[in-house]
Amino acid sequence: MAGQTKFKHLPRALNGPVGCPFEGRPLLLNTHYNKGSAFPEDERDRFKLHGLLPPGIQTLDEQVKRAYEQYSSRPDDLAKNTFMASMKAQNQVLYYKLLQTHLKEMFSVIYTPTEADAIQNYSRVFRKPEGCYLSIDHQDRIEESLENFSDIDEIDYVVNQDLLDNELYLGVRRARVRGKEYDEFVDRFIQATRRKFPKAYIHFEDFGLHNAKRILDRYGDQFACFNDDIQGTGCVTLAAMMTALHVNKVKIGEVRVVCFGAGSAGTGIADQISDAIATMSKKSKEDAVQQIWCVDKAGLLLKSQGDELTPAQVPFARKDGEWSESDERDLLAVVKKVRPHVLIGTSTKPGAFTEEIVREMAKHVDRPVIFP
């Protein structure tokens, strides 16, 4: 008789034996309990697995060796990502052991940058559903969808992605929702999640430039939430910059920073740095912002851009009087005029930090700090 457990899936950490509520084929189809060829003889008896597995019994290390050979035979990183996703759906113990053994090699395959390709090709490589799928066309079913997804009190990750052009696309085939309908959907999801998962820590991932900070500001004081592009990137960059300033002996109250790229990440970094300047130098936030110059694809952000600026960009736009009409606004021109101690890159434009720009910084700063 199979043992009993209160878990529909395994908890995050375990010590000792775990009761198993499955036997036979359902056991082999459950990724949390399936051990594949590693089931020993006594467990094959107990869980009625004879005839459902090859007779040879392998150790976990032997399974890892075979799985790694299979992984290595895949022709490209996307195929390797798909292989790993398939393994995770079949045998999580083997998946994590393989990953642990070859983490340095595999990290870029299961995460950035290959995961972005996997998301774009989601409809093409789809094999089995994972997670909870929420549709803009069924806003009144958000809470029902969360109930169907799980009856546990915790949730790990929420993902939404669309690729309308793919004929195999599995999502809602309609233009991106904006404005009131967008905000209502986000709010319904937030409220349903708070009721269903009251201890959840919600991570806003890859929200668009015009929505990221606005939504974070709206809900940030109400419950535990986090935007990695704005806050995660910002705090890590600030920590690295603070370390570098100790080396080049520049006081944070005097540092000049140029951010190339004024999207969610760029403005998030600028916001974190300006907060640190204000706090550590006992300056106002308005004065701290004056030590930061943000440059986007159109050049240095200026107040005269008006409605072209996002709410997150507005505090960092410079007064037009600081920059004459004859002045260039591109990155090189800004570096020449500002003479920054720190240059931070968050733009998707490759090769932006040219040798000329680096040499220009080095003319005026003994040890320039550059984050490409």
- CATH top level of the largest domain is Alpha Beta
Give the class from helix and strand content and strand pairing.
alpha/beta
Spans of at least 5 consecutive residues with low confidence? 1-13, 154-162
Question: From the structure provided, what is the oligomeric state, counting identical versus distinct chains?
Answer: single chain
SSE ordering: HHHHHHHHHHEHEHEHHEEHEHE
Strand arrangement within the widest β-sheet reads 5-4-3-6-7
- Total domain modules: 3
Our estimate of the beta-strand percent is: 5-15%
Total number of beta strands: 7
Summed over residues and divided by their number, the pLDDT gives a mean of 85
CATH architecture descriptor name of the largest domain = 3-Layer(aba) Sandwich
Provide a descriptive summary of the structure in words.
The chain is of the alpha/beta class. The protein folds into three domains: 24-125, Hemocyanin, N-terminal domain; 136-229, 3-Layer(aba) Sandwich (Rossmann fold); 230-371, Rossmann fold. It is built from 16 helices and seven strands. A five-stranded mixed β-sheet has the order 5-4-3-6-7, sandwiched between helices. It is elongated, with a radius of gyration of 26 Å.
